[in-house]
Design goal:
Blueprint: E1 11-18, E2 32-38, E3 46-54, E4 58-70, E5 73-84, E6 92-105, E7 109-112
Antiparallel strand pairs: 1-2, 3-4, 4-5, 5-6, 6-7
Length: 113
């Protein structure tokens, strides 16, 4: 299995649960769980962008932004693109995107998707 996104700019935190304690998530996770928690939408406008260039013509670009959409509904979006030749002369194009929308539910609840 692989991580379903390009880089870690859209990640808030990563939890690692080792051993049989992870059985709480299901019967087929005896070895452990890696839980990747993405950044939640927020009311305040936020944004980030990065561009990098590396060995073997490796190029990466990332843009993320979010804020208030309407009323108590907030959003967050990330777009990632990478291209490179690699040390084996394999052209690798990668593209990923993420969109999240969320809203306050009651005084203590928050629902996002």
């Amino acid at each position: 299995n692989t991580i379903p996104f390009g880089d870690l700019s859209s990640v808030e935190s990563i939890e690692v649960i080792k051993g049989p304690a992870s059985i709480l998530a299901g019967h087929s996770v005896m070895g452990g769980i890696i839980n990747i928690i993405r950044k939640k939408p927020s009311e305040r406008f936020t944004g980030n962008a990065s561009i990098s260039y590396g060995s073997w013509e490796q190029k990466e670009a990332n843009v993320g932004f979010g804020g208030k959409l309407a009323g108590s509904v907030n959003y967050r979006a990330n777009i990632y693109y990478a291209n490179g030749d690699g040390y084996r002369m394999v052209n690798a194009d990668r593209f990923s995107g993420m969109f999240a929308i969320g809203s306050q539910v009651g005084k203590k609840g928050y629902l996002d998707a």
